[in-house]
Give the backbone structure.
Amino acid sequence: MAANQERTFIAIKPDGVQRGLIGDIIKRFEQKGFRLVAMKFVQASEELLKQHYIDLKDRPFYAGLVKYMGSGPVVPMVWEGLNVVKTGRVMLGETNPADSKPGTIRGDYCIQVGRNIIHGSDSVESAKKEIALWFKDEELSDYKSSAYEWVYEN
Ligand code: UDP
Ligand code: MG
C-alpha cells in the first residue's frame, strides 16, 4: 500500500458526542488534509467494545471503560493519509488530557483520562484490526479527493 494511503481508525466517544464536539473534531482531520474514508453514528454493542479494547482486559479500568464507551452513540471513522496513524495520535494528544498540550484535541476539550472524548489507533497494525472490527469492506469508500494534488507533492 502506498504511504499516502495509510489508514487509521478514529472514534469520537460518547462524551465527545454528548458535548457537541463531533463537528470540531472532524474539522481538524479535514483541515489537516486527511481523506475521510468511512464514518458512521452508532450505539456500539458490549461485545464489539470488549473486543475493541481486548488488549486492556486485565486492567482495572477495563469494565468501566467498556461501560463508558457503551453509554451512548459513538462516531467511528477511518481517515487516510501519509503517516496518519502517528500524526493522528499527535493530534489527539496524550491518553491523559492533563498531559496533553493545548492545540491537541484532548488538550483543548477534556480534563480526565476516563472522559477523554476520542480514540485513535496506536499503530498501523492495530488500525487494520480496528478498521476490520468496526467496518465492512464495502463501507470503505474509494473516491479520490479533489484536493490530493494540493496536499501532496508526489
Ligand atoms: N483509560 C482509563 N484509565 C486509565 C487509562 C486509560 O480510563 O488509567 C481509558 C481511556 O479512555 C483511554 C482508554 O482507556 O483512552 C484506552 O487506553 P489506552 O492506554 O489504549 O489509551 P489511548 O490509546 O486511548 O490513548
Ligand atoms: Mg489505545
